[in-house]
Amino acid sequence: MDSVEEEMFHVRKLEISDRNKGFIELLQQLTVCDSVSEEAFQERYQEIAKYGDDHLICVMQDNKHNSGKIVATGSVFIEKKFIRNCGKVGHIEDVVVDSSVRGKQLGKKIIDFLSDHARAMGCYKVILDCSLENIPFYEKCGFKQKEVQMVKYFI
Ligand SMILES: CC(C)(COP(=O)(O)OP(=O)(O)OC[C@H]1O[C@@H](n2cnc3c(N)ncnc32)[C@H](O)[C@@H]1OP(=O)(O)O)[C@@H](O)C(=O)NCCC(=O)NCCS
What's the gap in Å between 39 CA and the centre of ligand 1? Predict the structure, then answer.
């Protein structure tokens, strides 16, 4: 990606108007995500905003093709603990890049942005869950595999 492209795909925080720029459709490329009404989006957005810097959702907008579409996103939640001298841990979630622009380092930029935020917030580590096939991507982003994920679904 050249410097012009770099400028056109910069990372910023999610804005309330991003629902109309394909943010939900992008999340649908990641997992099951029904359409979200304007009202429901605003309510959830305000709820998340109350956490301030402890819950950051970032996006990249495609200004290159003038589509203005949201083409990449990811989030990080800052967990406050008692262990490790009341340490903090960053949890990265919901990382996805639009299928039309994968392989252009956008995913890595999202992960770097979220990791930098966690570091700046005083976290001693940042962690995430991923599929086996995405391990090489996260290794390229400086992560290493450790332990396993356990889950219990309620629905
Ligand atoms: C996984 C995903 C976010 C990667 O985004 P991306 O923008 O295509 O990745 P990048 O271009 O930033 O890749 C960075 C590096 O990782 C490598 N990489 C990316 N995905 C890879 C994969 N599945 N296997 C091997 N290497 C991979 C790239 O080749 C690149 O290597 P390089 O720096 O040597 O050129 C994207 O493929 C995606 O959205 N997938 C569907 C949703 C998903 O699985 N999200 C993750 C949930 S945990």
Answer: 33
